[in-house]
Amino acid sequence: MVTTPFTANAFLLQHLKALSLRYQVSLCLNQSLYPLLPEFESSGVRIINVPIERKLSPFSDLKALKSLLLIFKREKFVSVHTFTPKAGLLGMLAAYLCAVPNRLHTFTGQVWVNEYGLKRWFYKNMDRAIVFFSTQVFCDSASQGKFLQEEEIVKKNAITVIGGASISGVNLARFHPQADQKFGIHFSQLDSQDHFNFLFVGRIARDKGIFDLIEAFMGVSQENPQARLWIVGPDEEGLRAQIEYKFPKLNGVLWVGSSTTPEVFMAKADVLVLPSYREGFGTVIIEAAACKTPAIAYRIDGVIDAIEDGHSGVLVNKGDSKALELAMKSMMLNPNRVSQMGEYAYQRVERSFCAKKITNSWLDLYEAIVPAEMA
Predict the structure, then answer these.
(1) pLDDT tens-digit profile of 346-358?
(2) Which of 104, 177, 217, 375 is most buried, by the most CB atoms less than 10 A from its CB?
(3) Which pLDDT belongs to residue 191?
(4) Which of 311, 292, 270, 290 is nearest to 356 (CA)?
(5) Number of H helices, E strands in the chain
(6) Spatial CA neighbour of 37 closest among 211, 213, 171, 219
């Protein structure tokens, strides 16, 4: 169970397809929030719509909880596995109340990490509630697991990473340096040999550092007119209008919008930039790396596992948009370094983040819960 199809598209398709060859698999989510990848239609996975919202909304949340209780009682699932905070809280609570024997949750980042006071306390206790209702908990990076233990969300040694790295790993058949050619997409309007293309992939949201990115890019583009910034992802918070109002002289930015083929842009871009304030891991970083595109990002838990600083990309201090700008300028001035980092990043993904390896770990996990011959 996830809140939106965006998460399922980005992380779960290959794992669920593999599981569906052994088990009956259902995916619960709110289909109205984002389009599912067409591949789900032939995946063997049944889709169940749940009216769950990303933001806290007591009335909507109670409605979603009621729907989940009815679904779980009807389906009698042997296991429920949730991702993202809202899906985790409602899904684990409903599974607990319906006595589902195996209740699994994977943490993919903490909404409270940049909050203070009562708000931080409230959301931290939401995560503690998720752990209480779960029988097993996981996270998508070693540094996030360590952080959750230090913050006393989980007990010591009570959280692991399935497959050792990331939720999904990288599908190397999909994410590769020639991905733009595979889909036959022409970039004549976007790209020329004179342009240096920065790329952002993700939700256009404050916690993704979108305002920091725009501010840094303005400094870059004022000195380097050949700089371009491609922004790929849904504008869930309606921030584009605010950004264009705040930065009226913004040039060189292409608002792509939502895309089910981010690999096309990753293969064509020069550098990925992800100034996120919180990440469980930063999967887009290793996806771009599989396309030989290095990354610049903030030094935060999760991301420090996705980037080997100085080798597969560059890390700068969180919230330091000036350092972000300088790192972007440095990349532009050193194309050979960009190429070397891209090659190193590609080899690192092949070595450590192959999706097939992590899918096999998922199969091992579920085989331990319910042997396939009993399914």
Answers:
(1) 999 998 898 898 9
(2) 217
(3) 57
(4) 290
(5) 15, 12
(6) 171
Which tops the pLDDT comparison, 250 or 372?
Answer: 250
Rounded to whole angstroms, the Cα distance separating 342 from 177 reads 10
User: Is residue 95 a contact partner of residue 80, using CB atoms and an 8 Å limit?
Assistant: yes
Angle at 11 between CA 363 and CA 106, to 5 degrees: 70
Pick the CATH number of 5-169+355-374 from 3.40.50.2000, 2.60.120.1440, 3.30.460.10, 3.30.930.10: 3.40.50.2000
**Domain segments of the chain as ranges:** 5-169+355-374, 179-352
Q: Which long-range contacts (CB under 8 A, 24 or more apart) does 188-196 make?
A: 190/228, 190/230, 190/254, 190/268, 191/228, 191/268, 194/226, 195/226, 195/227, 195/228, 196/224, 196/226, 196/227, 196/228, 196/270, 196/271, 196/331, 196/332
β-strand 26-29 against 46-49: which pairing, if any? parallel
Q: Identify the CATH number of the domain defined by range 179-352.
A: 3.40.50.2000
- Say what the pLDDT of residue 111 is: 85
- The mean pLDDT value for 316-343 works out to 97
To the nearest whole percent, how much of the chain has pLDDT over 90? 71
Query: Do the domains 5-169+355-374 and 179-352 sit in the same CATH topology, yes or no?
Result: yes
pLDDT of residue 375: 58
Q: What is the pTM of this model?
A: 0.79
- 162-194, pLDDT tens digit by residue? 987 788 889 898 899 887 665 554 555 555 568
Residue 282 has pLDDT above 90, yes or no: no
Helix (H, G, I), strand (E, B) or coil at 232: strand
The continuous run of DSSP H or E covering 256 comes out as: strand 253-257
